[in-house]
């Protein structure tokens, strides 16, 4: 049975945009749900394990996780999750930055990446964190830009996923109904809810994309290093029935 979203609807009245800031503590974006209610837990350095990044790819400072973007790789939670909701805030440091969060990554995928010891990304459902400037970058290179929607895309990576509309031309991605993210140098707020094979994403307070049919619907959470420096903060998770 899927949980009611009554507690979420009140957040829409607060507006769909939050102010951005480079101050990691004093101006932290407040979740539009009470992520300090019972059951919510903060993910800190001790909750993550290395996978296939370099030693200096990830670093923690004053509660903020800094990523150099190199090599293309991930860091993974030590624990696995089935049904959960998560809050995460992120900020690209440069234009055209690329990153994301993976949900329900299998232990086998992580073991394979560790064994290979080279750049690469796991299976799972990717929650895209792509700066608007990436579109301009692809256009300048003469490449197609209709297959991605910058921030807010949801899609399966070597895992079954049925995207909610609107979708990419090939039907593999759930495109965001609105582009609500701030640009590089400003913080953004993601709320992700994953229940019984369904994943939904709220960007800066408003639901924008989703999909279902994910199997198996359990696994690790991963943060992605994909070519550009990015910062993460306020990583919080609550397990759901």
Automatic annotation (TrEMBL):
Q: Which parts of the sequence belong to the 3-keto-alpha-glucoside-1,2-lyase/3-keto-2-hydroxy-glucal hydratase domain?
A: 52-238
Annotated Pfam families: 3keto-disac_hyd
Q: Which domain of life is it from?
A: Bacteria
Alphabetic keyword roster? Signal
First and last residue of the signal peptide: 1-24
Protein name according to UniProt: DUF1080 domain-containing protein
Which Gene3D superfamilies did the record assign?
Answer: Exo-inulinase, domain 1
């Amino acid at each position: 049975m899927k949980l009611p979203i009554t507690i979420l609807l009140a957040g829409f009245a607060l507006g769909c945009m939050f102010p951005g800031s480079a101050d990691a503590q004093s101006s932290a974006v407040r979740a539009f749900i009470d992520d300090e209610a019972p059951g919510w837990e903060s993910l800190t350095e001790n909750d993550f394990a290395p996978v296939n990044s370099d030693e200096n790819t990830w670093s923690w400072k004053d509660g903020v996780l800094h990523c150099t973007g190199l090599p293309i790789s991930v860091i993974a939670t030590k624990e696995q999750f089935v049904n959960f909701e998560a809050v995460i805030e992120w900020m690209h440091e440069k234009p055209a930055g690329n990153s994301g969060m993976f949900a329900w990554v299998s232990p086998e995928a992580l073991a394979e990446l560790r064994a290979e010891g080279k750049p690469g990304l796991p299976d799972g459902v990717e929650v895209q964190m792509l700066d608007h400037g990436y579109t301009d970058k692809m256009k300048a290179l003469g490449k197609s830009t209709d297959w991605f929607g910058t921030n807010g895309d949801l899609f399966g990576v070597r895992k079954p996923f049925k995207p909610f509309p609107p979708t990419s031309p090939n039907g593999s991605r759930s495109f965001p109904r609105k582009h609500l993210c701030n640009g590089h140098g400003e913080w953004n707020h993601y709320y992700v809810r994953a229940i019984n094979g369904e994943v939904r994403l709220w960007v800066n307070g408003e639901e924008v994309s989703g999909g279902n049919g994910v199997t198996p619907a359990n696994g690790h959470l991963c943060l992605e290093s994909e070519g550009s420096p990015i910062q993460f903060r306020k990583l919080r998770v609550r397990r759901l029935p």
